[in-house]
Amino acid sequence: MKKLFCLGLCLLLVIFTLTACLNNPEDTGTTSGEETTTPVEEESTTPGGETHDHVYAAEWTTDATNHWHAATCDHKDEKKDLGAHKDENADNKCDTCAYVMAYAVTVTAPNGAVVDKAAQNVAVGADATFAVTYGVIYRLSADNATLVDSVDNEDGTVTWNFKVAAPTADTAVTVSAEQVIFGAPVDAGLVTFEGVSSAWTFYPGADITVNLEAGDYIAYFLGGDGGATLGLAADDCSTMGYAFTVEEAGEVTLVTKFMTYTKYDEATDVSLTYIIAKNEDVTLNALEGEGYLLATNVSQEIVFTVPTPGLYTFSTTAEGININEEITSSCIFMATEENQEIRISVKYEDSMNVLFDFDWSIAFVDGPALNDGANDVVISLEGYTAFTYTAPVAGSYSFVAESGNNYFYYWSTDYGFLTSDYSGSYLVKNAEAGEKILVLVKCHDYEAIDDVADVITVSYAGILVEEGENTVATNGEGTEVTFIATYEGWFNIIAGENTLIGIVGEDETVAWVSEYEIYFEGENFAFLVKTADGAEADA
Question: Whose C-alpha in 40, 216, 354, 409 is 20 to 30 A from the C-alpha of 224?
Answer without folding.
Answer: 216
